[in-house]
Amino acid sequence: MRLVAKGIALLGMALWPVFAHAVLTIEITRGVDIGTPIAVVPFGWEGATPPPQNISDVIGADLARSGRFAVLPRKDFISLPHEDKDVVFKDWRILKAEALVIGSVRLAAPGKYQVQFRLYDVFKGSQIAGFRYTVGADMLRSVAHQISDIIYEKITGEPGAFNTRIAYVTREAPAGVKPVYKLQVADSDGYSPQTVVRSPESLMSPAWSPDGKRLAYVSFEDRRSKVYIQNMTDGRRSMIAEFTGINGAPAWSPDGRSLALTLSRDGNAEIYVMQLDTRVLRRLTRDPAIDTEAAWSPDGRDIVFTSDRAGTPQIYRMSASGGTAERLTFEGDYNARASYAADGKSITFISRSQGGFRVAVLRLDNRTAQVLTETSLDESPSFAPNGRMIIYATEVRGRGVLASVSADGRVRQLFKLEEGDVREPAWSPYNRELQYKE
Amino acid sequence: MKNRKYLVASLLLALAVGGCATDEAAKTTGGESGAAPAQTAPADSGAASGTALSDRERQRRAELLAQKRVHFAFDSSTIDDEARAIIEAHSAHLVANPQLKVTLEGNCDERGTREYNLALGERRAQAVERMMKVLGVAGSRIKTVSYGEEKPLCQEHDESCWRQNRRAEIGY
């Protein structure tokens, strides 16, 4: 079975000069050991030296982090099969494993690795999925995440979002040194961070283009806010907005052709849409209040945004061509920075609740809102492309960290840097360019 | 429009104060880095009103001019009495020193969202700008910029720190 024979997804990133990077480490703070019990057997390997990546460890960590699986400890395993013929289902029923993953890695040619895996239903004693990939060493982690996505989808019935990336901003300010801001992109598990932009002034509001190849963001490098787009395939950057006043809140239309922006060129923060090929601007809001933080619905028809036209910041929805806005949030005196889930059925936003600024979700069908976190300085929530998790920035013991919470609030984790602050996360769309898979 | 009421009051006060300002403005004002305004405050000739400022008034004005920050309540750009007195002093100074240009930087505390705060910071800078214009400073001499929550003065996560960060900075 041949899907897509391209492996260039992450290639563009390699064009960047690579700086020394601190890797984000992930700590699961709630929701360990719930979900489907699964055994991930260490993958077989016949080389003299260890393989460049431990595939089974990456898969196990992905599944554990999702909160949908209880990954069983390896020390309890009775057998360690790598091949189909060696699987004894009784060994796994004893451990109460419902699913089993086995596999192997071998050197197919110099610098080329062949990875194969099989997923089994332990109760039925049958194989659910099995694939083989041949890739270079630099793509092994990506293959592991793709395997995690397949396992996730086969077991939960929903697509996984492990083979995706997150963009975020770090601020490093060691004592006595001027701060350095970096816009970075890493795998969804925090690995392989790459610096996309580096600046002595603040960076904020990174936004992925729908094809995952460009990032729009706000930079203060000229000592005022301007919007840029960084193309991650060819490394080129273009200046998008440097009008008088503020230039901020970039948001891509689902077709990737337009960018919603907040500009105050006409005196007051209003939402505009710029058609990227012609740079023609269309103004969508006309209100003396602050109108900002636009986000498009996945079908491109609507835009949600923040406005304080009723006295406090609240979420509104209007047609993507402008016109009358409908207020969506009524609880509390601060609701802001909404963005849609990929199915368009709910939005996540920041809500002031019991004095804290917390991540909330509003279902658009019945207008019920739920606050998902208990922290007090949350910012910038965005859904994973499968809608199961929300990533956001918060503060823990005086440090800026990223955190994620499952859309039902049951599973939480923290992404931390060893030093410095991390903020402004944005989850990438799906990576549609899969590895060669058979 | 409660803003209008105090703006009118401010204007009257400013005219009273500004009327005392000398035309012989100190010419020693620094550039971007900005010498402390207290040192460049105009000496009082008493020409305009015919009466000299008392030492006490002069000292009060120097103190106000030395303050280059005005503060705001959360999610607000309303100028309170304390801020108004500072803006009036700077406006009078600007009127008396027509060669000066002023930059007003709006800032917010870390709470709430960054992009909303970028807009709120601008609104704070604009609130100061509007008052300065009413007090006779030409709009062409005023530049506003917002840093939102990106340039905190203070890094702690409590109200005393947040108050310091919710500010407009007046820079010459």
Account of the 3D structure:
The complex is a heterodimer of chains A (438) and B (172). With 438 residues, chain A is mainly β. Chain A contains 3 helices and 31 strands. In chain A, strand 5 (99-109) and strand 6 form a beta hairpin. In chain A, helix 1 packs across helix 3. Chain A is globular. The longest helix of chain B is centred in the C-terminal third of the chain and has 21 residues, at 114-134. The model of chain B is unreliable at 1-50 (pLDDT under 50). Chain B has helices spanning 2-18, 37-40, 55-66, 81-96, 114-134, 159-165; strands spanning 69-71, 102-107, 142-148, 167-171. Chain B is built from 6 helices and 4 strands, in the order αααβαβαβαβ. In chain B, 44% of the residues are buried. The A-B interface holds A 201-202, 204-205, 218, 220, 223-225, 245-246, 248-249, 262, 264, 269, 290, 292-293, 306, 308, 312-313, 333-334, 336-337, 350, 352, 357, 377, 379-380, 395, 398, 424 and B 75, 110-116, 118-120, 122-123, 144-148, 150-151, 155-157.
